[in-house]
Sequence to fold (328 residues):
Amino acid sequence: MKAMRAALVVVAMMCGASAANAQSKWPDHPLRFIVPLPAGSAADVMARLIGQKLSERIGQPVIAENRAGASGILGADVVAKGAPDGYMLGIATSTTHVTAPIFNAKLPFDPVNDFVPVAVVGTSPYVLVASSTLPVKTVADVVALAKAKPRTISYSSVGQASLAYLAMELFSAKTGAEFNHVPYKTSTQALLDLVEGRIDMQFGILGTSLEMIREGKLKALAVAMDKRSEDLPGVPTMAEAGVKDFEVSLLFAVMMPPKTPNEIVTRISDNIRDIMAEPEVKRALAGQAIIATSSTPIEAHDRIQREVALWRGLAAKAGLVAEAGGRN
Fold:
């Protein structure tokens, strides 16, 4: 019996030494960076920029891999079930980690406990935009038209788990106007249809809508911020347009699979902090109307918990059908 116990101790020590040795050699091959949304999306731009800079710092390629579907849930689930070896990263957004648990009771992961947060890396405000063919100029015009013709004005989102959907539902609840939801598989296609007039309006990320607004292809009615955007100084805030307490921004964070070693998480987090502070990175993201930020892993964890609680509370207050998702 003593001999067996001694053997087990030796095996445990060997396994521990092997794991420590693997960590000391990290990274010795390329990393995967899972993007839960399509190529060209804001999350994709963010992941590729960080991946390129991180690759330069750690001496290994960081390869972006788009795994879009189900409002980003499919890609997020890949990260949640990934190997904790330090070779997988993922971009998380407000859609995958905040609104998904509100509207999806069968979420295949817990947005807080099934991931190791690395850092919050950016925020992007939403803007209410309308097709150039919709006969409105202001938020008040939209509300008046929607009340005169309930559920005839259409709006798009990438599904009920998206922040854009929740933003419009809250807008509807606050104004008493009713709209017709048209779900899309991708935000890119939704934006194209909005420009073509096949959809009337949407809450879109400022970065992906900005060029179309500047070209006059879309009407910007209000920004969902507490102050006017430097990119659109002539566009009022939602509060200025008559809708109080309405601020919506898309959150971007970097996550890793659960049980990823703390040493690796800390090393990546430290690198990302330095990356997000680079003027070149800030300028590149500002061009997408994304505000570059950074945080510690603990701060990222706490921020996501607060966002889930905030939006779940707002959804309940607005009388929306909110379900506790995942395994919270």
About this structure: Residues 36 and 242 are 35 Å apart (CA to CA).
